[in-house]
Every structure is written in structure tokens, then in C-alpha cells.
Design a protein that fits this description.
Elements: E1 13-15, E2 28-29, H1 36-40, E3 44-47, E4 52-55, H2 61-67, E5 71-74, E6 79-82, E7 85-87, E8 105-108, E9 125-128, E10 133-135, E11 140-145, E12 155-157, E13 160-162, E14 174-178, E15 185-187, E16 192-200, H3 213-228, H4 232-237
Antiparallel strand pairs: 1-10, 2-5, 3-4, 5-16, 6-7, 6-15, 8-9, 9-14, 11-13, 11-16, 12-14
Length: 239
């Protein structure tokens, strides 16, 4: 099956059980999920080192483009964290023809990450539940990772690559390391828990070489142009 619109845009298909239609916060394009801190931050800030205003990362296209690539999958209900416990009130109906977890999270036994930097004998790895199945176009996998550059979140979602053009009729849940043990309060419904980025399956090789004379001239010319025009990448090279 080819998942394409009439305007030839590739499409990801998210589906949920009938009982949950209209009750789950839907996945959104990552461009619509930019955090408030990025919206509010200035584009320039004074550099004490250089004694002048310098551009902030808000003016760095690679930083922003990574954050706005693909789609964000949101937390399905509020999580309240207090006294070392995570509690919730998730008012969704039980499964009908299709069974599904009603809780927003579950846990991995710490033994499952034995030998990794995540292992702590007395701490579980949480798992965010996702109640959307995801179908990608033929030839595409989905790279699931922590929402890019979201260092403000109290957890870090583990990364994984799933062939969602083939594996499309079952849930994909998302393990995460809750790294902020001092967090107290509510992690709100709709908080992005994972970013999914389509990746076309292709075979790649590498090629290494030293600069030719022409290469050296091109590198020097571009570096000089970048020094003259700080916003050159955004104007000339950004797709």
C-alpha cells in the first residue's frame, strides 16, 4: 500500500481503537510542538567574552530544524510525581474488541538494562504507553527518539528504529529513563514523550579522501563568505 496524498506528500497513518477516538491527544507535526522556552528566548544576547551581541541558538537553523522534524507523540494524561511515586487519573473506557493498556505508563525491571549506563538496582525504567498504531509508506522505517533538544523534560526517552511499513498493526511503547529525581509536580497531558522521524531504508557506503586543489579553494571561499555573512546558511543552503 502506498500512503500518499493527491499532492504527492508522504503520509504517516495513526490509528486508535474506536473507544478512544476523540479521547487521546493526537500526534502533531513537530513544527507545531515547539516549546515555550524556545518561543520566548531572544534571538541575540550580549557576549561578555566578545563584548557584543551574538546570535543565540534560536537563530541556528540546524538546532531548530532538528526540533521541528517529523512528528511528536504526546502523553495521554497528566502524571503527578510526588514522594517517589507516579500517580494518574486516566478516564478512558476499557477495551472492547481490541484490548489496550489503560494506564499511561508501566515499568521495565532494572535487570533488563543490566550492563548499560541506565542500570540502577533500585530503580525501574519507565515505559510510556502509546495507543496509536503507526503505518509508514513502503520502504520507510521510523526513528523514535527523545524529543530533540528538550533538555527541560525530567525524563529521557530511549531511541529505537522500527520498520513501520511492515510492523503497523500493534502498539509501539517507549521506554524512558526518569533522570530528574528531584522533579515534583505534574507532567501535563500532551507533553511530547517521543519524536518520530521517517527514515527511508537505503544502503549507504562511505568514501574518504583528502582535499584536491579545487576542494581547498571552495572550502576557503565558503569560510570567507560565512565570516562576511553570518546568516548565509539560512539564506543560501537551508532547504
Amino acid at each position: 500500500m502506498s500512503l500518499q496524498n493527491n499532492n504527492n506528500k508522504l503520509t504517516l497513518r495513526f490509528r486508535c481503537p474506536k473507544e478512544l477516538e476523540g479521547l487521546l491527544p493526537p500526534p502533531v507535526p513537530a513544527s507545531q510542538g515547539v516549546p515555550d522556552w524556545l518561543k520566548a528566548m531572544p534571538t541575540t544576547a550580549f557576549s561578555a567574552l566578545n563584548q557584543q551581541d551574538e546570535q543565540t541558538i534560536k537563530r541556528c537553523p540546524p538546532f531548530v530544524d532538528a526540533m521541528t522534524c517529523g512528528f511528536l507523540i504526546p502523553l495521554i494524561c497528566d502524571l503527578r510525581v510526588e514522594d517517589g511515586e507516579i500517580i494518574w487519573d486516566n478516564d478512558i473506557p476499557p477495551g472492547g474488541e481490541t484490548e489496550f493498556p489503560r494506564s499511561p505508563i508501566s515499568f521495565h525491571d532494572p535487570g533488563q538494562v543490566t550492563g548499560t549506563p541506565l542500570f540502577e538496582a533500585d530503580r525501574f525504567v519507565i515505559k510510556f504507553h502509546n495507543l496509536w498504531t503507526i503505518e509508514a509508506p513502503d520502504g520507510y522505517a521510523l526513528f523514535f527518539t527523545h524529543p530533540v533538544n528538550r533538555f527541560d523534560l525530567p525524563f529521557t526517552t530511549l531511541s529505537g528504529l522500527v520498520d513501520c511499513d511492515r510492523y503497523k498493526d500493534a502498539w509501539i511503547h517507549f521506554p524512558a529513563h526518569w533522570h530528574d529525581t528531584n522533579f515534583r509536580g505534574v507532567l501535563a497531558r500532551g507533553t511530547p514523550i517521543v519524536q518520530c522521524i521517517p527514515v527511508k531504508r537505503e544502503d549507504w557506503t562511505t568514501q574518504t579522501s583528502s582535499f584536491t586543489t579545487e576542494d581547498t579553494q571552495q572550502v576557503q571561499a565558503l569560510r570567507a563568505e560565512l565570516r562576511r555573512e553570518p546568516g548565509l546558511y539560512r539564506r543560501k543552503f537551508r532547504a
